[in-house]
Amino acid sequence: MRWVKRYRGLGVILAVILLLSVPGLFWRSEQTRAARANYRSAMAPVILVPGSSATQNRFNQLVKELNTQTKTQHSLLRVEVKTNNQLVYSGAIRRGDRQPFIVIGFQNRADGLTNIRKQAAWFAVAFQALQKTYHFNHFSAMGHSNGGLVLTLFMENAMAKTGAHADRLMTIASPFNLEEADPKVDTPMFTQLVAGRQHLSKDLVVYSLAGSQSYTGDGIVPFDSVDRGKYIFQKQVKSFTQITVSGANANHANLPENQQIVRLIRQDLLD
Amino acid sequence: MAEQVSRLGQWVIAGELRWRKLRQVRVVLTALRVIFPLVLIGTLADLVNRSWLTPTGYYYQTLHVTTWLLRRTRLQQGILLIQTGALGLAVLGVAFAVSYLLVAGVTRRTSDRLMGGGLAVLALEFLNVTPATLRAGRPLEWAAMNLGLPGLALGIVVGLLVGNLYRWGVRRWHHPSDALIRPLTLGTLGVLLTAFVSLLWLMRGPVDTTFGPAAWLRSTLTGASDWPALLGVSVLNGGVAWLGSLSPLPSTPQQAAMAAQNLATVLDTGSWHLPHPLTGQTILQAYANMGGPGMTLGLLLAIFCVTHNATQRHVGWLSVLPVLGNFNAPLLVGLPVVLSPVFLLPFLLAPAVCLSLSSLCLALHWVPASAYAFAVGTPGPLISYLGTGGAWSALGLAVVNLGLSTAIYYPFVKWAAMADRQLSEEATNDAMG
């Protein structure tokens, strides 16, 4: 059996290759899931949601201001979600823009618990349509006032189904306990947000910004209601930062144009 | 019984023998053998670190290392210590050994030999300083062991330069009055001269000793997305490795972007019609890099197909584990393939043939292009299979490529073994005569 002796080494090496391949062959079925979990699309839009009674044009000035302060000019797409789930687009995403702004507004933009819940559902409809068109699987978001509540509800209840990952969330004067000023009273909105907090991503970075016109709030939202964000995000997400802004333009409606807040958006939301 | 050797074989063997008999070459090959243990240990540590302990590693992912391995970070620190130490010392060691052996050819005095070797190490270290820190009052950034395997060629060149200069000095000064006066004088002059030359080099900064060659290689790969460009990169990478600068296949931001777009297409649309079917990842990495640059898994298999080559088999056995993880430095240094004319042709030809055949198969849509990221340490034939999400046709093509490269290496391994035997017979005859 000379040939056995001659090719014994070759046989051993081929056997070792086969043996080392076994873990890979078994792992193959997990590969797509692992790749999908680690995969991040090149595009990561910044989604902006206005508060009640504001339209999808609410952030035009803010985006213009941000574009004058950043090296890269980001495009702006506005989407209005009709009550029948129909989407109306204006503006466009420039080809190659990896971090465009997308404003999602609602035809029914009235205030109130029931409406905020509906707006969160409409937001999910718009989000899935945008995801299908632009093939992104991660994003950052900013919500002004009730817009922050819409985003938080979406992240708790509907985001898992989309397969998307939220990188950063910035809420500006979002009333997590609605307009309730009494710290001893929990509104149904707050109870719902706290109940769903375990669905928030552990990788999410959250900034909660509050305006301080008086010593108790920004003129509309009580400071305590914004402060309640800590019971939702703290010890749940990757990091949670609360910032209070005072001085000029610190009242509720003017906060998105407040220069300190513009700087924080540029610094913390944009790459 | 004498073996039949073709005309080409006879010509190759004769050329190899002539080459290996050159003094400078003999010295370099001996020095490579001296540092082989360091290269082997350092490469094994590199393999363990990058394939078992790093998230992009094959075993890390497939065997879910984090779930059962305790104190991974501490272990990784220990492994990195071994890796950096052994590979860093290998570069310093080759400079020392080359210079030492060159001086040993003209004098029996140990002090001269050691001074020659020491000066080469010093010259190498002089080159490896961060120029920006060369100012009075600032601590000097002195990177002692950071060169690693890509710096092996630099170690050889510095060893040759310093060794030959010292050798020249010894030959001019035959009989010093005192045993210590010559190494003292030549050593002092050598330190001053190497410091002066190194200072000029650092001030001009023509090439960064650590990253220069790698950056140059990467620039050739930028945007390579067709067959001629990939062929050029493969030949260039092989040529540089043959000269002693051992590094993995280079990658560039453009190549990474193309790979990301390919993966995005597969994950988003489920389609395997990729936007960039011919890239470093889809062709070079998947089909022409088994066992490391040069398709050295084919070389390893060829070694075990040839008979009467005990030395080659010995090096082959020692290099099995690294080569199966595509870390081929021990095999390239141990045989050696580095600076060996007999291995130059197959070392360039085997990956070129594999990448050409694979490009053709991809163009004809016989196999899908690789989209999933390559896990470090994946056994060669499995790279394309996992890269294509489990396409058996890709595995089949990889096996064909492996067979082809083994066949290409086979005659050259045989001729190298014959040259080895002839050299050792001549050495024995010389010793007896």
UniProtKB/TrEMBL annotation, chain A:
Listed Pfam families: DUF915
Origin superkingdom: Bacteria
InterPro entries: AB_hydrolase_fold, DUF915_hydro-like
GO MF terms held by the record: acyltransferase activity
Alphabetic keyword roster: Acyltransferase, Transferase
Protein name as it appears in the record: Acyltransferase
TrEMBL record, chain B:
InterPro entries from the UniProt entry: PTS_EIIC, PTS_EIIC_3, PTS_Sugar-EIIC/EIIB
Topology of this chain in the membrane: Multi-pass membrane protein
Official protein name in the record: Permease IIC component
Domain PTS EIIC type-3: residue ranges: 8-412
Record's subcellular location: Cell membrane
Pfam annotation, one family: PTS_EIIC
Keywords for the protein's UniProt record, in alphabetical order: Cell membrane, Membrane, Sugar transport, Transmembrane, Transmembrane helix, Transport
Ranges annotated as spanning the membrane: 27-45, 78-102, 114-136, 142-163, 184-203, 286-306, 394-413
Cell membrane found in the keyword field: yes
